[in-house]
Design brief:
Elements (H helix, E strand, L loop, with lengths): L2 E7 H10 L1 E2 L3 H6 L2 E2 L6 H8 L6 E7 L7 E5 L5 E5 L3 E2 L3 E9 L5 E2 L8
Antiparallel strand pairs: 1-4, 2-7, 3-6, 4-8, 5-6, 8-9
Length: about 120
Amino acid sequence: MALVYKICPRDLWREAEALGRFTGAPVDHADGFIHFSTADQVAETAARHFAGQEDLLLVAVEADALGPALRFEPSRGGALFPHLYADLPLSAVRSVAVLHLGPDGRHVFPAEVPQA
């Protein structure tokens, strides 16, 4: 099972749980799709876009469960990033973990997320 990851503020995720689906963060709404990262990309995404932020969650999503609405498209440096052109159904979520800040100020990822 291939997973993609969404870094999400806890309050936005709680809204998604109440709604039964995740409609995206403000940046997702602005860009017209929900941004995800692969396991190899998620640490850089955290460092680049969420540096020093607390109260974040790491949402692991089964890529195949999203069907054709999930597209891998070129982004920074030509790398292919997963973008979801639909709401995220909570049925596709495999885990939600707190994304803590380490003593160095960088986010600490759960052991099951392979890091480069």
